[in-house]
Each structure stands twice: as structure tokens, then as C-alpha cells.
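Batch manifest line 407
LIGAND: coenzyme A
JOB: complex structure
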Amino acid sequence: MTGGRLGGLEIRQLGPADDIEAEVDLRRRSFGPLGAGHRTAWVASAEASIAKGQAIGAFDGSRLVASARYVPMRQWWLGRSVPMAAVVSVKVAPEERGRGVGSAMISDLLGRIAAAGYPVSVLYPTTGPVYRSAGWEFAGGKYEVVLPAAALAALVAPGPDQTGGTELRRATPADAEAVIGVKGRVHAELRHCGPNTRDPGSPSLRHWLADEDEFGYLADDGFLSYRWAHGTSELDVRELTAGSAATTRAFWQILASHAALAERVRACVGPDDAIGWLTREPVSELRCRYRWMLRIVDAPAAVAGRGYPAAARVLVPLDITDVALPGNGGRWTLEVSGGEGRLNRPGEGPDPDGPAVRLEARGLAALYAGTPMGTLRLTGLASGGSPAADAELDCAFGARAFQLDYY
Ligand SMILES: CC(C)(COP(=O)(O)OP(=O)(O)OC[C@H]1O[C@@H](n2cnc3c(N)ncnc32)[C@H](O)[C@@H]1OP(=O)(O)O)[C@@H](O)C(=O)NCCC(=O)NCCS
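JOB STATUS: finished
ARTIFACT:
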């Protein structure tokens, strides 16, 4: 169900006739000041969502009291990408909070995301309950590594077959599509679980590449973007994605070249990034900066759309309960083999043995993102099934999911 009323409030799609300044005011009151540079990018992104019918607002008469939107992206899961709706900018006017407006908006937005055909949805939460009650669950992290810049001057020696170089060039605002292409190729080849790529038309990516204080480099198999921070005492690496040993070393060398001024490098990378193995001494500190949540919106499409380990073989009955999206619910058989997965209704494929694993929407999301079955059982997110089924599911999904992008 989308659209509707909540205690006198009307929830509806935002349109070009709605006052963008009311949206900016709500943004400021909810998330703090918007600097002049950031305002242009933020308004462009909000207007793009509104133009595409991907933004909603809650109105008290003509007064905007809450709003939220989603942004189309792709999310990479073990070699393949799945269309993903990133939920952003969820905000309720301070005086209207705590009476169900946020929950009503999220439930409305979820209905729209499902109707638009997205298999999965991701968001960075500031609070869990609003999203958990609609079926999102913690799934992965956005990690950062902090290193002394001096430690980058001499990395461990390259391997014997790592003799090639790499060709780098500065990235420009015209490179949005090239950046998305390179990132997608690296995520696919390295079989990353969780990272997103933006839509080629994304205004925020164009603004990112146009920022004169952000220094971007592109290789055929990598993208580096960084800026000075805390004066010049730190380098803040917004992204370092590299698909070969040569590009990895070239990017870290660029950062190392600043060691005379910069004391530290703070870099957004995956939790198993090569840099953890490339410094001579154990100087890199990894931490999870933010946690993100996943919602499986269309379970059969999400299962069929992602990749799996070639060796994984699964034939497990699942009992799924999904109150908000009942089409995902009921009895399924999860079948995974040869790197492909599918959800079959009873009678559609081979018959599985044993009792069904019981999952609600949140458990399904956490499992999909690689949370071990043991953890799901300890937290009440999974029940039923058998130890043999757990072993098969862990083999198919197990991962440390991450994202590099914050939205
Ligand atoms: C987060 C926000 C959207 C919630 O809106 P809301 O209308 O107050 O939420 P609801 O009244 O629908 O509350 C739904 C549930 O979330 C809980 N909740 C809401 N805000 C919470 C918070 N900040 N911390 C902890 N729990 C919170 C409520 O207690 C309620 O729980 P219940 O179902 O167990 O009773 C709103 O507080 C807000 O705009 N905050 C500032 C901006 C922000 O952080 N946005 C979220 C970005 S991810």
C-alpha cells in the first residue's frame, strides 16, 4: 500500500510543484547545517529523486512535516550486481516525532520500492527500530583503516610475478560513467559482497568528481579519491578501489608521497583490503565506522540475481514470514549449485530433506549478507532446520559484507 493518511497527515509522492525550500529546511533541522558547497549537490540530488517520483512527503495540510526518498543503485554480491534502492534522507520534523510518522513513511516507501521491482534495499540507519519493524536488518559495515603516512613509504616487496605497471590519469567530472564501470569491474572480479555502484546519471557522483578539493585518479582497474583533512595533517581517502597489485601499489604510493606533510592516512576500504597485508609492521587500525541495513524486497529475484561460491551446494526448505511483503512469505526451497541460486515453491524443483529453516524478513536479510547461521540463531533471527542445513547456508552466503560509499 502506498499513499495514505496518518492521524490527519497525508503521505504522498513529492512533485516538482512542492516547495524545495521546505525540504531543505527539514533536512537542516534533522541532520544539521548544509554548507554552501554541499547545498547545491544536496538540492540537485533531491530534485532528481522528486523528478523520478522516488521521493515522498508527509503533509499536515500544505505543511511538509516529514519526507524520505530512495536512490537507484546496484549492489555487488559475489561477482554479480543486483538492482538496489538506497533509502536516504528519512526525516520527521522534531515536533512531529514519536507518534508513528517515521514508521508510516518507511512502510509507504517500502511499498513503492517493491512496486518499482527492486530486489533489495539498503540504508544507513541512525536508529534501528523504525527500519527493523519494516524488515531491514543490520547486514554489513562501512570500514576505514587509519595508518601513519610514513608506513606507506616502503610496503612489503611485490611477488615475483608482480612486475607490471599501471597507467593512471586524473579523474574529471566527465568520468562519472568510467568510475562506475571501473568500480563494477573490480567488485565483480574480486567477488566483493555488499559494495554499491551509483547510477550513471547520479548528480552526487558528478558533484563529487567536480569538487576541486577532492583529488581523483582513474586506472583501468581502479579508482582513488582523497582530500586533505585537519589542515594538512591527515589525508582522507573517500575511496580506494583497485583490482590489481600494480594499481594497489600505485594508489598507496600517491598517498605515501604526501608523508612529509600528512601524518596519517584515513582510508575507506573493505575490511579485507590488501593494505592490511602490505605494510611491513602491524600499523594499520581497522574500524567499522557505520553499519548498514539490508531489506530483501523481492526474495526470488534477490536470490537469483546474486552470485554464490562455485562449490556451494544447497537444497534447504525455508519457511519465510514477511508481514510487510507477503509475496516473499511461505514455504520455499532454496537451491544453490554451480554458482547460481533460486527459490522454488514446493513442487517446482527437487524436493529437499529435513525440517524447514524459519526466517522472518530480517533474518533473511542478515543471512543474505553473510551473517553466520549460529549468530542468527543466537539473536532469534533463525530457527528450525538442522545443523546440516546451517552448514550449507553458511557455505553459500558466508561473507563480511561492506560498502565504500556513504549516502
Ligand atoms: C528517526 C526518525 C525518522 C523517526 O521518526 P519518528 O516519527 O519519530 O518515528 P516513529 O514514531 O515512527 O517511531 C518508530 C519506532 O522507532 C523508535 N524510534 C524513533 N526514533 C528513535 C530514536 N532516535 N532512537 C531510538 N528509537 C527511536 C520509536 O520509539 C518507535 O519504536 P516502537 O515501534 O518500538 O515504539 C526521526 O526521529 C528523525 O527524523 N530523526 C532525525 C533524522 C534521522 O536520524 N533520520 C533517520 C536517518 S536513517
